[in-house]
Amino acid sequence: MINQQEVMRLKEMAYQMRRNLMMLCGTFEGSVHIGGDLSMTDIMIALYHYGLHVDPTDIKMPSRDRFILSKGHGAVGMYIAMALRGFFDFDEILRTYGQLNSKYGMHPCKVYLPGVETSSGSLGHGLPIGCGMAYSAKVKRQEHRVVVLLGDGESQEGSNWEAALAAHQFNLGNLVVFIDRNRLQLDDFTENQMSMEPYSDKWSAFGWNVITVDDGNDMAQLAAAIDQLPATDTDVPTAVICSTVKGKGISFMENNPDWHAGSVSREDMERGIAELANDWNQERGG
Question: Rounded distance, CA 217 to CA 38, Å?
Fold first, then answer.
């Protein structure tokens, strides 16, 4: 079980990730999916810095856990979380993101960027790919876990529910899906576009073990959910439903559909970074 010192270490990583996200959004001459990147920040830090068995010095380690970013437009968030873990250099991300032939595209590409398990971008494909990878591992008697990060708007697509049925049918207890349940998608709240509640009941009805995280931006709750994950040799896949806030940490972005994607002025970048620093100083008792 996680201790308070480790929780604070992870919170500091999340602060650094949000700060880096704002720096990139304020310097890149184009649109960044900043709202969803901020909502998934704590999940990504909890996974790459606590939950996933990975080694940035041995990216092909056979026993490594496999992570799939199904919501591929959150690529910047994944790049930065991995950079903080030691996979990449953030300065290189900041300098080259989104440019022609950059390793850091607006959607991840495993051909360009070693350490990324699968290319993604077109929504609705991450969980089906994860099912295939988990089934392969089970057949080969491999003990690693396959973890997918799914957006809640993305989960409206039928391909995910076909995959959910398959995961139950083939007893894929080595498969875990974390769901960034920020309740916002491209231009509106998810429940206005396609009502999904009762959301956890749907996953349960498909035969999945369900763990609900009431505050998916709370590091202690996320770590507790990771600690609850069943062993990989069990027969039931797990869905971890994380209630998050889109734009978390930046007051003018939080729960604002206008910040699904965009760029910020230097003034707003500095304002956002100052907010983050102030919140972090209060968190650590400064």
Answer: 9
For residue 178, the surrounding DSSP H or E stretch is: strand 175-181
How many angstroms from the chain centroid is the CA of residue 68? Answer: 9
Looking at the structure of the chain, the number of domains it has is 1
Q: Give me the DSSP letters along 56-74.
A: TT-TT-TTPPEEEESSGGG
Question: Does the global pTM surpass 0.90?
Answer: yes
Report the CATH number that the domain containing residue 100 is assigned in CATH. Answer: 3.40.50.970
Domain that holds residue 191: 4-283
Q: How far apart are alpha carbons 286 and 144 in whole angstroms?
A: 40
Taking residue 236's Cβ as centre, other Cβ atoms within 10 Å add up to 14
Closest to 272 in 3D by CA, of 14, 25, 9: 25
Amino acid sitting at position 246: K
Residue 259 pLDDT? 87
How many beta carbons lie within 10 A of that of residue 114, not counting itself?
Answer: 11
Please state, rounded to an integer, the average pLDDT across all residues of the chain. Answer: 96
Phi, psi of 37 (to 5 degrees): -60, -40
Strand order in the sheet with 209-213: 66-69, 146-151, 175-181, 238-243, 209-213
Q: Is 35 helix (H, G, I), strand (E, B) or coil?
A: helix
H or E element, residue 209: strand 209-213
In tens, the pLDDT along 143-175 reads 999 999 999 999 999 999 999 999 999 999 999
Residues 6+ apart with CB under 8 A from 83: 20, 89, 90, 93
- Identify the pLDDT of residue 286: 61
